[in-house]
Amino acid sequence: MKKERLREALEKLLSMFESGNLPPAVARTMIRRQAGDERPSDRWSLGNRLLMYLAGTEDARGFKQWEEAGRHVKKGAKAFYILAPCTKKKTVREREIDSDTGEEREVERERTVITGFRCVPVFRYEDTEGEPLPEADYAPPEPPPLFDVARKFVGDVRYRPFVGRYYGYFDPARGEIVLSTHDAHTFFHELAHAVHHQVKAGGLKPGQHADQEIVAEVVAAALCELYGFQGYIWHGWQYVKAYAGQDDRKALKAVMGVLADVEKVLDVILEAATPEERGCAA
Ligand SMILES: [Zn+2]
């Protein structure tokens, strides 16, 4: 790949940001859990799932549920608690309009009513041992461009179902990229984080920081432009604006402010690409 081609893409991107004249957006997609690979927590309330994430896991189950899955809770493991509604059947009197006569009447109906909540102890997957859980394959039929480049910077790129928090993330400690979408745009964003982590003195700051997010998103948008995924550029610009205070001029300034890092990350990515991968965009 010619560096000029990359410069061109980046310049085109900047002029699109500047003019606000962006290609039409495509909807983002997410990976859904396959039948046969469900977890009990898939049916939990949002509040309970948040409690689970706060406990640092994405799969928590009751003691017996783990036993049924062929795993055992480790000795000394501590449960955390979710709230389950206590319900009971109750006969209630309700008024309704009779569809034949149009008159109001009173009927008795059996309804399930919530009478309160009880705490249910559940254990984290990480605190269990035993049979491995069946794992469905969520990888895309075709890997995105530059997939092999990512393997040079991280130990693993994993695809898994969307659990309602993020489309993807880069974990510097584990050296892995986790994706809950097949959209190349998200893969590019996380790849950019992984490479930025290596080229930046001292690595990335932990957590989400505006400057780091804007670098990753502009790199992703430039790669989308380069490889023909233009429908994501609109999303990229919204993302940048969200970090720059929803103001076009501030957002453009923020992009300019990190352009040196953007170019460095793009250079390193393309440097690491095979001629074949570069060829895709030539
Ligand atoms: Zn990010």
Number of E strands: 8
Which descriptor suits the 3D outline? globular
First and last CA, distance: 6 Å
Helix content: 40-55%
Q: How many strands, which pairing sense, and closed or not: the largest β-sheet? A: 3 strands, antiparallel
The total domain count is: 2
Alpha-beta classification = alpha+beta
Please indicate the percent range of residues in DSSP E strands (runs of 2 or more): 15-25%
Rg = 25 Å
Order of helices and strands: HHEHEEEEHEEEHHHHHH
* Strand order across the largest sheet: 1-4-3
The total of helices stands at 10
Provide structural commentary.
The protein has 282 residues and is an alpha+beta fold. The chain folds into two domains: 3-31 and 135-279, no CATH class; 40-85 and 113-130. The chain contains ten helices and eight strands. It has helices at residues 3-19, 46-54, 63-68, 147-153, 184-199, 210-227, 233-243, 248-257, 259-272, 275-279, and strands at residues 60-61, 71-73, 80-97, 104-124, 128-130, 156-159, 168-171, 176-179. The strands form three sheets. It has a three-stranded antiparallel beta sheet. β3 and β4 form a beta hairpin. α6 (210-227) packs antiparallel against α7 and α6 (210-227) crosses α9 (259-272). It is globular, with a radius of gyration of 25 Å. The mean pLDDT is 90. Bound molecules: zinc ion.
